[in-house]
Write a structure and sequence with these properties.
This protein is of the alpha/beta class. The chain has 24 helices and 16 strands. Belongs to the PEP-utilizing enzyme family.
């Protein structure tokens, strides 16, 4: 019997519509409450070791089957966690304390997860991966099917409490029509990977698991985050029609980014690897506005060599030819610890020695990276822009700019993700060539809300008027100095918010490549004066919801098909 008709709301994280039979993602069964206490730690350690080796083998087998380099990297990283020696030692310790095998795995992982949470940033994001390893290992020990996404042979809409990155990364857009999760946030792995795969998705849909049953029909609008359980034929038809209109609106989206009256807004891609660059370069876009170089450094025992970095940066520049490539220097530190640059545990890593602060303490790492970028530029003469993360003061910006210019690199800039840099952007921009707004961190620091906390998602939306005020302050500094200001945070990929950003004075938007067509189409539906009016209304709004509603009221009705 189908569940009763119901409309739910969450956070739309990947635009598009979907309707079809629901498939529930299996929840982890948890520990075996009836298992005996451990009396032979050596034997039980071997048993757990065998289970974890099976999990590693399973993850690696899935990695080999995927055709996506990013999906393969996610699966391999999760497999690496499953083989972590520190975790194995923690499990053995629990077994020696008398825990049964599944309790030992559960308790050891929880201890490890708490450690990662305290580190914050990238490492805290690995907690979901770690829990995935825990759940798979416990199922292996209990002889139960692995939790997670069921075998899918016909098109379905997936519903889950949350999805591990290893699960999201292997979804097939041909059979997974949409994704709905009860937890998560707009910057979670699920949200980011769904956007990269182009699968309509909504997260933080409260109560969805209580409202559905296996086999229900469910409809999803991933733009506005609306979910319809057991939709009527009319509702399903309206969604299908909206999907057709959206496809028609996007069909003509090509060429440079610009408003209807010709104001240029460059549309760029966020990338993290050479494979990302080569894939993004095939899209109709104008380059890369954010190359996250830390992926070259993370998870290693030693820093990448000058030769290795030169090769990577050269290949990325070659992939884009004469199109722009904005490289962010190493963004690591307390929130993304490096084995070869460990400065010790910090009380509050999100506010600690990260980004440029780490580079000032380990100049050798930055000097090698900048020399590699100079070598790559010399080899390609590409349109290379280099920027530093986590800049807060004019002195920091000047210190970085002097290093970059000494090597003959053509453009030097800073990330504006700290409120201090936004408020003092005219002074900061006076010593560099450009700035790029990292809206994820800027929202986190402006609202004093951890970006990894799904329950704080309402505070972290870039529609918050306080966050828009910060963006306006940064753009005003750009206008005052005649310097270039772009956006490379998640806000850049929202077609509606793109209009506000353009109206505030943002000159480029960088995003997941699959979001470019919708943003380009949205810009071409509006002239700059309308974008400026939208921006004024949004900044002056009382609440985030009021800001978005005010912009929608001014938007061309065709835009709603793109959301």
């Amino acid at each position: 019997m189908a569940s009763e008709h119901k409309i739910l709301h969450g956070i739309g994280v990947c635009a598009g519509t979907a309707s079809g039979p629901l498939a529930l993602v299996r929840e982890a069964p948890g520990v075996d409450e009836h298992e005996p206490a451990c009396t032979d730690p050596a034997a039980d350690t071997e048993r757990v070791k065998a289970a974890m080796e099976a999990v590693v083998a399973s993850l690696k087998a899935r990695a080999e089957k995927t055709t996506s380099d990013k999906s393969r990297a996610v699966l391999e990283a999760t497999a690496q966690l499953a083989g972590d020696r520190g975790l194995a030692k923690a499990i053995t310790k629990r077994l020696k304390a008398g825990d049964g095998v599944t309790h030992a795995v559960y308790n050891a992982v929880e201890g490890y997860a708490e450690m990662l949470k305290k580190l914050g940033g990238y490492m805290a994001e690995r907690v979901t991966d770690l829990h995935d390893v825990r759940n798979r290992t416990i199922c292996e020990l209990r002889g139960l099917p692995a939790p997670g996404v069921p075998d899918i042979t016909t098109p379905v809409v997936l519903v889950a409490r949350d999805l591990a990155p290893a699960e999201t990364a292997t979804l097939n857009p041909e059979t997974v029509l949409g994704v709905i999760t009860e937890e998560g946030g707009p910057t979670s792995h699920t949200a980011i990977l769904a956007a990269q795969l182009g699968i309509p998705a909504a997260v933080k849909v409260s109560g969805v698991l209580e409202s559905v049953a296996e086999g229900d029909t469910i409809a999803l609008d991933g733009g506005v985050g609306e979910i319809i359980v057991s939709p009527t034929e009319e509702e399903a038809g309206q969604l299908a029609e909206r999907s057709r209109r959206r496809a028609a609106a996007l069909a003509g989206s090509s060429g440079e980014g610009s408003t209807r009256d010709g104001f240029k807004v460059k549309l760029l891609a966020n990338i993290g690897t050479v494979a990302d660059a080569e894939a993004a370069a095939k899209f109709d876009l104008e380059g890369s506005g954010l190359f996250r170089t830390e992926f070259l450094f993370l998870g290693r025992e030693t820093a990448p060599t000058l030769e290795e970095q030169t090769d990577t940066y050269t290949k990325v520049l070659q992939a884009f030819g004469d199109r722009r490539v904005v490289v962010r220097t190493l963004d690591a530190g307390a929130d993304k610890p490096l084995a070869f640059a460990n400065l010790g545990e910090e009380e509050n890593p999100a506010l600690g020695v990260r980004g440029l602060r780490l580079s000032q303490r380990r100049e050798d790492l930055l000097d090698t990276q900048l020399q590699a970028l100079a070598n790559a530029y010399e080899a390609t003469h590409g349109d290379l822009w280099v920027m530093a993360p986590m800049v807060a003061t004019v002195e920091e910006a000047e210190w970085f700019a002097n290093k970059v210019r000494a090597l003959g690199l053509p453009k030097v800039g800073v990330m504006i993700e700290v409120p201090a840099a936004a408020i003092r952007s005219a002074q900061v921009l006076s010593v560099v060539d450009f700035a790029s707004l990292g809206t994820n961190d800027l929202a986190q620091y402006t609202m004093a809300a951890d970006r990894l906390k799904g329950e704080l998602a309402n505070l972290l939306t870039p529609w918050q008027p306080a966050v828009l005020n910060m963006i306006k302050a940064a753009c005003d500094g750009g206008k005052a100095t005649g310097k270039y200001v772009g956006v490379c945070g998640e806000a850049g990929g929202d077609p509606l918010l793109a209009l506000v950003l353009a109206g505030l004075g943002v000159q480029s938007l960088s995003m997941a490549p699959k979001k470019v067509n919708a943003v380009r189409a949205a810009l071409r539906l509006h002239d700059m004066s309308t974008c400026q009016q939208m921006a004024a209304y949004a900044v002056d709004a009382r609440t985030a919801a009021d800001a978005r509603a005010a912009v929608i009221a001014l938007a061309d009705p065709m835009l709603l098909d793109l959301l």
